[in-house]
Specification:
By secondary structure, the chain is of the alpha/beta class. The chain has helices at residues 14-24, 36-42, 63-72, 90-98, 111-136, 146-162, 177-184, 186-202, 227-244, 268-283, and strands at residues 6-10, 29-33, 51-54, 81-85, 103-106, 144-145, 168-174, 209-214, 217-222, 253-259, 289-291. Helix content is 48%, strand content 18%. The structure holds magnesium ion (MG).
Length: 292
């Protein structure tokens, strides 16, 4: 089944909800709120709405206030809001738009026009979601991408310095990956990359940032983790991959571990040390963890 975009309709009058629902129910998954309070609650529940149709005059919290709160909340700020209201005055429309609504529809509604406008805003929302995901994630593995890792590294390093907590980085490489691709084909290679990425994610803490660095290389940032603990953690990851047997192929990884040294304010030297350690792990026979 195709996953339909989700629209949340908030209105205190059942008939208004019914009219909107009738003209949208074939193309969207609908969620209903009968007041402002309920709208704020449902907007934060999965599946998150891709768009909210918001009445202005509601007895508990009016639509303007609901809009203001949704826009001020990080988890709901990107959801487009369209006011649907009997208020015809230009001032009311202007006020709604200054609060961050993308559109303003007056009742009585014309179904074809409502459908067309909603379709436009939903399309824009889905496109911007995709762009945001592309900017952060690697498409194949779902891990963060190199760009994001470099971006976040500044925050991680600043935090590590401020709180005087150790920060380590694991540079991971799948052993003999070229041979896997040559022998089993690129689709198999892709599957193995995905399986390895999944295993790394499953055995990491929520705060660990894991990124695909490029090709078959992946990087893990370990917050508040000294070299000794990073070595242990890395060896656990190595062990898990050795047991994984994706597509019943024996896969191993080599890991180089680098620590942020005192006085360093960016990722470059730490990255170099991890890279050199990885080189040594390869040189020593692979399927092992080596520190800087
Ligand atoms: Mg109303």
């Amino acid at each position: 089944m195709v996953d339909l975009p989700t629209i949340l309709i908030a209105d205190d009058i059942a008939l208004n909800i019914q009219i909107l629902a009738n003209c949208l129910k074939d193309d969207y998954r609908l969620k209903i709120a009968t007041g402002g309070k309920q709208c704020l609650k449902i907007a934060q529940e999965e599946p998150y709405p891709d768009l909210i149709l918001l009445d202005i005059e509601m007895p508990d919290i009016d639509g303007y206030e609901v809009c203001r709160r949704l826009k001020n909340n990080l988890s709901t700020t990107d959801i487009p809001i369209i006011f649907v209201t009997a208020k015809q005055e230009l001032e009311a429309e202007e006020h709604g738009l200054t609060l961050g609504a993308v559109d303003y529809i007056t009742k009585p509604i014309h179904p074809a026009i409502v459908r067309a406008r909603i379709h436009t805003h939903i399309t824009l929302k889905i496109q911007s979601d995709k762009l945001r995901a592309m900017a952060l994630y690697d498409q194949l593995t779902g891990l963060y991408n190199r760009h994001y890792l470099l971006d976040i590294s500044q925050n991680k390093i600043a935090r590590s310095i401020r709180y005087q907590q150790p920060l380590t980085l694991l540079m991971i490489d799948i052993d003999h990956f070229k041979r896997v691709n040559d022998e089993f084909g690129h689709p198999a290679g892709d599957t193995i990359l995905k399986e390895v990425a999944k295993s790394l994610q499953l055995s990491s803490r929520k705060e660990d940032v894991i990124a695909r660095w490029g090709g078959e290389e992946m990087v893990v940032f370990l917050d508040n983790c000294d070299l000794g603990n990073a070595m242990k953690k890395a060896d656990q990851l190595r062990h898990n991959i050795e047991q994984l047997m994706p597509l019943e192929i024996k896969i191993t990884i080599s890991i180089g571990v680098g620590l942020l040294d005192e006085g360093e304010t960016d990722i470059s030297k730490m990255l170099k040390r991890a890279d050199l350690a990885l080189y040594n792990a390869k040189d020593n026979g692979r399927n092992q963890v080596v520190s800087q």
